[in-house]
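Memo to structure team: turn this sequence into C-alpha cells by end of day. - J.P.
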Amino acid sequence: MTDPAAPDALGVLDRITAVLEAFDGDDRGVGISELALRAGLPKSTVSRIVAGLVRQRYLERDGTLIHLGLRLFELGQLAEMPQELRFAALSVMADLRSATGESVHLAIRDGGEVVFISVMRGRASAAPGSRIGGRAPVHATALGKALLAHAPASELDAVLAEELAAFTPRTVTDPERLRRELAEIRRVGVAVEVDEHAPEVAGAASPVFSPSGRVLAAISVCGTSADFDPERWPPQVRDAARRVEARLSANR
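Reply from structure team:
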C-alpha cells in the first residue's frame, strides 16, 4: 500500500533542496525575498523552510540576510576531505587498535574544535564526542593539541584569544602555558592529555602531514586513564601517523 505521506515528504525535500541550491559562491548573504525568487517558491514557504534550517544550523541568520551554515560546512568537510586520507589511514588505524586494544580516531581541525572523520572503537568507553562528525575542543584533547601545534600563527592566536573552557580541573586554560605545551608537542611530534577533556579519559595523538608538508589531520589512541601507557602509546601513535603519510605519498 502506498504511504499517503510519501508525495508530501518528497515535495518537502525538493523544496529544501531548491532553497539550498539558491545560494552561490559569491553570496554574502541573501534575503528571504531573493531566496524565494531564486528557488521559485512562495516567500511564506521559503520563510518556513529557512526557519527550520536555521534551527538545525544548516543556515545562519544575520539580521535580514541568510547565509549557509556551519552544519553544512561540517558535512562538506567530511565529503571534501580526500577519500585517500581515510583510505590510507584505515589499515593503519586497525593495526593501532589491535596493538593497543584502545579506540583510535582520525580528526581534522575546524577553528577551536576537532571534527572526527574516522573512528574505530576499542575496549574502553567512547571518549566524549567520538563519533564521525562529532566535535571536541582543540585545547583539551590530544588530537586538538597535535593539530593546533602546527596551526599558522594567526590561527593559533585566534584560538588562544578566546576563553579556554575548563572541562575538568586538569584542563589547561592558561594561554601561555598552552603555548609552551604546543611548542613541546612540535618538538617531540606527539601530544598527550590525561583527564583534561573528561575524567578518567586519556589519549595520545600525532599529526599527519601531506606530501607537501601541510598538516592534514591527526591520529590518536584514546582509552581510560588507568590504561594509559606513556611508554607505548606516544611512539605507537607517532609511528602510525608516519605510516599514513607514507601511504599518502605512495598513492601520488
